[in-house]
Amino acid sequence: MTEEITAAALDPERFIEEKVAEIRRVVGDGIAINALSGGVDSSTVTMLGHRALGKQLKTVFINNGLMRQGEPEQVVGFFRDLGVPVDVVDARAEFFAALKGVTDPERKREAITQTFYRDVFGRIVHESGARYLLQGTILTDIDETVAGIKRQHNVFAQLGIDPQAAFGYHIIEPLVQLRKDGVRKLGKALGLPAELFARIPFPGPALAARVIGEATPERIETVRRATAVVERWLQGSGAFQYLAILHEDRVTGMRDGKRDFGQQIEVRCWDSVDARTATPTRLPFELLERIASEIIREVPGIVSVTYNIATKPPSTIEAV
Ligand code: XMP
To answer: What's the pLDDT at 308?
Structure first.
């Protein structure tokens, strides 16, 4: 059992000091590597690792083709400003090849995990000579994997996978006692700008977690555009997380006076403290109408927009 440190109990300076010493002790004069996605967890672990290891830490941003609009450029730019160099690796073709024809949620997560850790990251680690992988796994990821709710992208031990044997590297997970609110507090103390530590959570499998059914480049582009609309309207709403989901079912609609058997976007907006439980935000109906009409105008093929009003549990925050 991992011992939880609540956000209230977290003393960021002491935590940083302890983790920096621990990371240095484990890595020694070796090389560590970490993958930055720009999410709160991976951004915080990047800063912590950089504080501990400086040039001994190599940070890569893997462009899996599943990120939001302009995200690779934006994230790399933030870290450049913080003095942390990040290498961008274009792996879009590999991810879409692995996702081709895959519709089952767990198989989709599995395809992304395997492509990420075994193929793309495995290759990068091998080429870099790094023996250590620094990862931003948090306690909620472990809870949900253990409970069998969802196989989290970044949990190995709980799945019975030995990363040393499977991928040839050792994993360091310094955030594993924290939940999202604790990670934000830590990220702030590490000097991350609010754009990063206060960012809404974004899952490891990225937009593929928001496409029900096959995640093709076209379907990812559809949910990417809808996500941009939702984020534009809801940033500053104070909600914990907001997102767009592309459904697999087609629904009858009308476009230009003709029947159009089109696609469906579901908008979700959550109030939550730590993602373990969540309730839908009571957004004003006028705002929902504005979001819906903009999605229909800006996203080709969408004829229906719905708003989720179910709580977590039994729902989950993401759809896949
Ligand atoms: P769910 O959908 O399980 O999500 O209610 C709980 C929180 O975790 C995020 N999430 C993930 N984060 N890897 C991550 O690092 C993942 O595979 C993953 N899946 C979901 C989700 O966005 C929410 O904040």
So the answer is: 98
- 286 C-alpha to center of ligand 1: Å? 29
Q: What is the pTM of this model?
A: 0.86
Torsion on CA atoms 300, 88, 131, 139, rounded to nearest 10: -40
Other Cβ atoms closer than 10 A to 92: 16
Mean pLDDT confidence for 116-138: 89
Q: Are 153 and 205 in contact (CB under 8 A)?
A: yes
The three-class DSSP label of residue 299 is coil
What is the tens place of the pLDDT at every residue in 230-250?
A: 999 999 999 999 999 999 999
Structure tokens at 80: 């450049």
Q: CA-CA distance, 129 to 233, in Å (whole number)? A: 44
Out of 107, 155, 183, 317, give the residue to mutate to test ligand 1, the one with the largest number of ligand atoms within 8 Å of its CB: 317
Q: Which domains does the chain have, with CATH numbers?
A: 12-197 (3.40.50.620), 211-307 (3.30.300.10)
Relative orientation angle of helices 92-99 and 105-113, to the nearest 10 degrees: 150
Mean pLDDT for the stretch of residues 69-85 = 95
pLDDT digits (tens, 9 = 90+) for 86-104: 999 999 999 999 999 999 9
Residue 318 beta carbon below 6 angstroms from any ligand 1 atom: yes
Long-range CB contact pairs, 49-52, < 8 A, 24+: 49/23, 49/134, 50/84, 51/16, 51/20, 51/190, 52/19, 52/20, 52/23, 52/24, 52/27
Contact 71, 39 (CB under 8 A): no
The pLDDT, as a whole number, for residue 1 is 65
Distance 202 CA to ligand 1 centre (A): 7
Instruction: Quote the tokens at residue 132.
Output: 């250590």
Residue 26 burial (10 A CB sphere; 0-12, 13-18, 19+): middle
